[in-house]
Specification:
By secondary structure, the protein is of the alpha/beta class. The chain is built from ten helices and eleven strands. Helix 2 crosses helix 3 and helix 5 packs across helix 10. It is globular and about 55 Å long.
């Protein structure tokens, strides 16, 4: 069990409804429901009885509620005790952000950070994974969200998001292939790719998966060509190309394009929070902890 799961469970029981608890936790209701379901599956017991008027704890849920409250109280006590030995920061938290984060992740984490460290002001920069790691090592960022875990002892990292990536296709092609889409059925289509230079390890992992399913990855995108995610829509709408996207793609989707899951979930996109190993800033710790608590983890 994870702290975020226990916190979510307690919030649902105390709120008496998924929707109310989701608002309190600053997460979407489907993501919260998924967290509770995963917790029930892991424990092998039903924790909640869901009705049209709300939720109630089962006998097993009532037992877990008492234990969870005790664990969370001890956890919060430990965090508060350690806060006396850390720095709150210089008032500005410089955060590196990649494209296509789950829509509820940053707002929820920033809301939690504002509660814990009201004097911290956040400055966010959209940067590739490689650029973020370089900025962290140059003391130009305090924490980054990257698509590949950096090597070396100078940076600490924590996995905060794992998403089963799906595919964007033209609507008529999506109807023909059906759902879920087998990766090998995309043969003959062009992959709307991104420049390898921005995230080499993630690109290589994705390209290897495509090749293992008989797909041609095509020529490498020029290093200087910046990925513009909005261009995925016109690229695939004509039917000659496909693009990958997470389940909760935070961009408008026209009727000419469909998002479909991939059979067997062969592609998992992971996002790590990364920060200098020598950092003792409390706001960094609070921000990373908030990301862990609110992050949707599909796999």
């Amino acid at each position: 069990m994870e702290i975020r799961e226990l916190r979510a469970f307690v919030a649902v029981v105390e709120a008496g409804a998924m929707s109310k608890a989701a608002r309190q936790l600053h997460v979407s209701q489907p993501a919260l429901s998924q967290t509770i379901t995963a917790l029930e599956r892991r424990l092998g017991v039903q924790l909640l009885v869901r009705t049209s008027t709300g939720v109630q704890a089962t006998e097993a849920g009532t037992t877990l509620l008492g234990e969870a409250r005790a664990v969370l109280a001890r956890h919060d006590q430990a965090v508060a005790a350690m806060a006396r030995h850390t720095k709150t920061g210089g008032g500005v938290l410089r955060v590196g952000v990649p494209l296509e984060l789950p829509p509820e992740l940053l707002p929820a984490a920033l809301a939690r950070l504002a509660e814990a460290c009201p004097d911290t002001r956040v400055q966010a920069r959209h940067l590739s994974s490689v650029a973020q790691v370089a900025a962290l090592r140059a003391d130009e960022l305090d924490v980054g969200l990257v698509r590949e875990r950096p090597a070396g002892p100078d940076l600490d990292a924590q996995l905060v998001v794992a998403e089963n990536v799906g595919v964007l296709l033209a609507a008529d092609l999506a109807e023909k292939l059906g759902s879920p889409v087998r990766l090998e059925s995309l043969a003959g289509l062009e992959w709307f790719a991104f420049a390898r230079a921005g995230s080499p390890a993630w690109y290589d992992e994705l390209a290897a998966t495509l090749r293992s399913h008989g797909l041609d990855v095509g020529p490498e995108v020029p290093e200087e060509q910046r990925l513009i995610v909005e261009l995925k829509i016109p690229a695939v709408s004509a039917g000659g190309a496909y693009a990958f996207a997470p389940p909760e793609w935070p961009y408008p989707m026209p009727d000419t394009v469909r998002w479909l899951p991939l059979a067997g979930n062969p592609i998992v996109r992971r996002t790590w929070a990364v920060w200098p190993a020598t950092s003792h800033r409390r706001d960094v710790a609070e921000f990373v902890a908030a990301l862990e608590d609110v992050s949707p983890r599909s796999p």
